[in-house]
Amino acid sequence: MKTTDTLTLYGTELRSRLLLGTARYPSPAILMEAVKASGTGLVTVSLRRESAGERAGQGFWSIIRDMGVRVLPNTAGCHSVKEAVTTAHMAREVFGTPWVKLEVIGEDDTLQPDVFALVEAARILGEEGFEVFPYTTEDLIAAERLLEAGCRVLMPWGSPIGSGRGLNNLFGLTALRARFPEVPLIIDAGIGVPSHAAQALELGFDALLINTAVSQAVDPVRMAGAFAQAVAAGREAYRAGPMEPRDMAVPSTPLIGKAFLG
Amino acid sequence: MRATVVGAGVAGLACAVELAERGLTVEVLERTRRLGSGCCSWYAGGMLAPWCELESAEPLIAALGAESLAWWREKFPGTVLAGSLVIAHGRDSGELKHFARRTERFEWLEGEAIAALEPDLAGRFEKALYFREEGHLDPRAALAALAERLTALGGRIRFGAVAPQESERRAEGFLIDCSGLAARDVLTDLRGVKGEMLVVRLPDISLSRPVRVLHPRVPVYIVPRGDGHYMIGATMIESDQATRITARSMLELLGAAYALHPAFGEAEIVEIGTGVRPAFPDNLPKLRRRGDTLYVNGLFRHGFLAAPALARRTADWLLEGREAPEVMQ
Fold first, then answer.
1. Angle at A131 between CA A127 and CA A135, to 5 degrees
2. Residues B43-71: pLDDT tens digits?
């Protein structure tokens, strides 16, 4: 077994398996504290087209840049290939990184990824030199197509964005993990509480991206710390090799030495 | 004793009135040509909702807000004390629970009680939160009333005037800068948060108090302005350019109003407004001294809610040397 346990994404080693989204915090100051408490080395930032002007949005972005963590810009809210590609271009300009979390939303109520458009956008961006982190479902074939399009990381959903319902399709997600043992898989979306996070890591997922569960907690900073502990525990449990569940009880006290009464 | 206040938004005018009432001769310098043009106070919702704001703000805002609410009731007869109502559509009912967990001084209402408060919403919502002690006002009428009060107290507003340079300042008197985002060259941690709003006219229905419509992505509030007018607001976008509203924001604001009551589909759009709120990284307002200038800034989305309480602290500090650590760094 390896003694060091680091997460490597597109050749970059990260110090934490917890990724944090930066949206909907009560204030940038609380966001900064939550980032510290989470121990994360990578935060996602969504870009609105109107904020990409010369000076617009600079205030918020300079706060993000000053946090000393890597930035993964995302294309949140994009509904088409063209929109996602344009947003990715803007993000590269603003943040100076080839990394992009690619979201192409197919349906507004569930914010479910449009995997067809996603594959197409991933291919275009890959050819342009982007390193793409696609937000996808647990669908095996979609995953395969994304890898063929050049993605070297996948971000399957746990459940719909912001729903806090945890891992909705355990069978599908474990099948995805088993099918692509060498590809970094980051659970993105739907995590509600730290136990969901621990479960994902125990199942062998490489990392998690969390936003709403932290930003909308009553105390976001404390919740960020709780998630950090859950992610660490889940990962350690995975590395330790969990026992297999059994159908029958097995005594945990050895019989030898038990007193004979009677 | 004299005081010069820079900026005729709600922060500047509240400071000016407070200082004038304590006996100072106050002059307000406003760079634009008329009251309200170019300041984000003009586009405010005018909700005096200290306890609703706890949903996303620190307890300090509720404390300042409760104090300000009393100030407005005393100084501005147009202050309405009719509470505020918070509702969510069926499938977003979790948002109401979430809101209730973070806020205080409300009661849960069921269908009939909602209808008793707002007859036009009868049968549309099963549950609501009612913040009985909250109020609202028309920000534009309130700004005009403050300006009038200042004049009555012997003060004046000079329009089209910029802040005096250091060299041309008179030695005596205080200088209080309430110029919002324009002060960002000195207060370098200020940033802008864009807001967009609409005013519509709809005589067909009547609402007596601000209604907040919760939604996981697009929370919107609707504030009655009297005479069949309603303010619908307001977006919060990390941007310091308020050139114009986007189609998406307009859709979201109107969609929320239409979902509150389909009659809003027939409303006339009277005005589309955008402004940029000045905010510090913790989204809390501050008093800061730089050289011989006292800055009152960072009121964020809490202009009318926080300005009077800040004006009092400004006067206490300048005239009595009493500091207010909760708003000073």
1. 105
2. 999 999 999 999 989 999 999 999 999 99
| B230 and B316 co-located in one domain | no
- Of A23, A42, A39, the closest CA to residue A31 belongs to A23
* A108 interfaces chain B, CB cutoff of 8 Å: no
In a domain, B76, yes or no: no
CATH of the domain at B23: 3.40.50.720
Q: Is the predicted pLDDT of residue B237 greater than 90, yes or no?
A: no
Do residues B170 and B122 both lie within one domain? no
Find chain B residues with C-beta within 8 A of A90's C-beta.
none
What is the residue-wise DSSP string for B110-123?
EHHHHHHH-GGGTT
Q: For residue range B76-86, what is the model confidence (pLDDT) as tens digits?
A: 999 999 999 99
pLDDT of A73-102, one tens digit each?
Answer: 999 888 899 999 999 998 888 888 899 999
Q: Percent of chain B beyond pLDDT 90?
A: 79
Block residue for tokens 């509240």: B14
pTM: 0.84
CB B117 within 8 A of CB B209: yes
- How far the first Cα of chain B sits from its last, in Å, is 27
ipTM: 0.76
Q: Are residues B165 and B182 in the same domain?
A: yes
Do the domain assignments include residue B167? yes
Tell me, what CATH number does B221's domain have?
3.30.9.10
Indicate yes or no: CB of A50 within 8 angstroms of CB of B190. no
B61 and B181 in a single domain? The answer is: yes
Structure-block tokens of residue B322: 């009493």
Cβ of B57 and A26 within 8 Å? yes
Put simply, whether A56 touches B (Cβ < 8 Å) is yes
